[in-house]
Design brief:
alpha+beta; about 350 residues; 10 strands; 2 domains
Length: about 350
């Protein structure tokens, strides 16, 4: 849940820090809660902050080539609640959570991209969020996490302790043993016990936040699935119709073959073989076209390459099976035609 403190009541950074610190301590102590924390911009909430930065001790970047980072303000409880593992270094100390200390925790993407030698700890960044810009020392590296949505690659991210940038709006995160929304009213009560006039907003579970960011992709996937199912049905009907017509045109030929001693399995092999040859040509053309058009679907895919071999093999297998069935049924019917009846069709 998000809390926006009014500036007329909490006009100083110290008042804001005191309110949020007391609130998160009371929330963390609630029965049924496993951990609690706070952050300025929650993942998947459509809110965020980003800016340029430079690495102290390195030559300044060329104009227009300054690296950028997402910036969030949080406490240690946020990392615990969201299960962001500490990869190296340390998190914020109690003193750093009470007063400004010019320290920062970064994610793995920033450390890997800008410190390929693995020496990020102890280095300082000048992050353009305050005026004047004061260098902040990297004290820890945490695991990566998605922020805006699941399809966007992970951005370099820096986490400041709250005193570094005393926002008046923060989001509380609470991990519970049971349904998280079952504690929402109790958490709101604890917040309003500190300030009866303080409202809260955006009370949701992380599942709900995730469903919100996935809604467009899910709708597109459902729509594509419906059209794909319709196309598959039409393809099956078309193949069956073509094969039935082809068999009917060759009824006299089939009767002659049977009269001359051909077995039913020979007729099956003949008709099904012809059908599968046509299907193979069509599938080959379809795979080439699918590879050419798959680039348009890249934005709808999550952790799936546009040329995923499993998908192509599965589609070819399904369409091949439909072609086999659509060819087999007319072939089976043709193989059972009495030779005399087939010859009379001439």
């Amino acid at each position: 849940m998000r809390v926006q403190l009014p500036s007329r009541t909490y006009e100083t950074p110290q008042k804001r820090l005191q309110f949020f610190s007391q609130a998160v301590q009371k929330i963390a102590a609630l029965p049924g809660g496993e951990s609690a924390g706070m952050i300025s911009f929650l993942p998947f909430s459509s809110l965020g902050a980003g800016t340029g930065f430079s690495i102290v001790g390195q030559p300044p970047p060329a104009p227009g080539q300054s690296p950028t980072t997402d910036v969030s303000v949080c406490d240690n409880g946020y990392f615990q609640t969201m299960k962001l593992p500490l990869k190296s270094g340390r998190l914020f100390s109690e003193r750093e959570m009470r007063e400004r200390a010019n320290v920062v925790v970064v994610n793995e993407t920033l450390a890997r991209r800008h410190f390929p030698a693995g020496d990020a700890l102890g280095k300082s960044l000048s992050i353009a969020m305050n005026n004047p810009i004061v260098p902040t020392e990297i004290i820890g590296i945490v695991g990566d996490s998605k922020f805006s949505d699941l399809r966007t690659e992970t951005h370099p991210t820096t986490f400041w302790p709250h005193p570094q940038l005393a926002y008046s709006a923060m989001t509380f995160t609470v991990r519970t043993a049971a349904d998280p929304l079952s504690l929402s009213s109790v958490v709101q009560h604890e917040i309003q016990a500190l300030d009866p006039d303080q409202p809260v907003s955006d009370v949701r579970s992380m599942d709900q936040w995730l469903a919100r960011t996935l809604s467009e992709a899910r709708f597109s996937s459902m729509l594509l699935s419906a059209f794909a199912g319709l196309a598959l049905l039409l393809a099956a009907i078309g193949i069956y119709g073509v094969m039935s017509y082809a068999v009917s045109q060759r009824t006299s030929e089939i009767g002659l073959r049977l009269a001359l001693g051909a077995e039913s399995r020979d007729i099956l092999r003949l008709v099904v073989g012809n059908g599968l040859r046509l299907a193979a040509i069509g599938l080959g053309i379809g795979v080439v076209l699918a590879l050419a058009l798959s680039r348009t679907l890249t934005n709808l895919l999550y952790e799936t390459p546009r040329t995923d071999p499993g998908t192509f093999v599965g589609v070819v297998g399904v369409l091949g099976a439909i072609a086999l069935l659509a060819s087999y049924l007319p072939a089976r019917r043709a193989s059972r035609i009495p030779p005399g009846e087939a010859l009379r069709a001439q």
